[in-house]
Amino acid sequence: GKREPPPSPYHHLQPLNSPSHTHQLRVWPGRAYAPHCFVDGIPWAEDDLPTSGIARTFNVHLRDQFGNSLVRKPFEIEPEEVEVDFKPKAGSLTSQGTVFSLRAIQQVQLDRTILITDLYNGTYVVSFTPFIQGTYSIDVTVNKTRIS
């Protein structure tokens, strides 16, 4: 007689469109990947330069190695907006393998405050208020790699 093939180990699976066997899976983005991260809002136009005592903002956009926005809050900070003293050496926030830091490249003491707001869409709004006249350079790094 004719031999029957052995039963498939998958015989119990239903087609993907079967509602009784649909499962939802949430996939989070990976850790921030500097080559895909970027800053916008800097530099300012010559007629729109920062003025001492007035807050200015720029945006930092964090992406993983596949270009996914970091939509979850990668920094365990309470409250959602955090004030950090912004000195020449560094202010940095670290969590889950991601380091996002802002560093002033300047020798003089900077008396100013920085506020980082998470928009929960991969974008962070950085607001800072310079109080001392002069030329400033701001480095934005992700995992110790400078982003532009």
Automatic annotation (TrEMBL):
Q: Where is this region: Disordered?
A: 1-22
> SUPFAM superfamilies in the record, alphabetically?
E set domains
Q: Which Pfam families match?
A: Filamin (PF00630)
Chain positions of Filamin repeats: 67-148
Q: Organism's domain of life? A: Eukaryota
Question: What PROSITE patterns does UniProt report for this protein, alphabetically?
Answer: FILAMIN_REPEAT
What name does the UniProt record give this protein? Uncharacterized protein
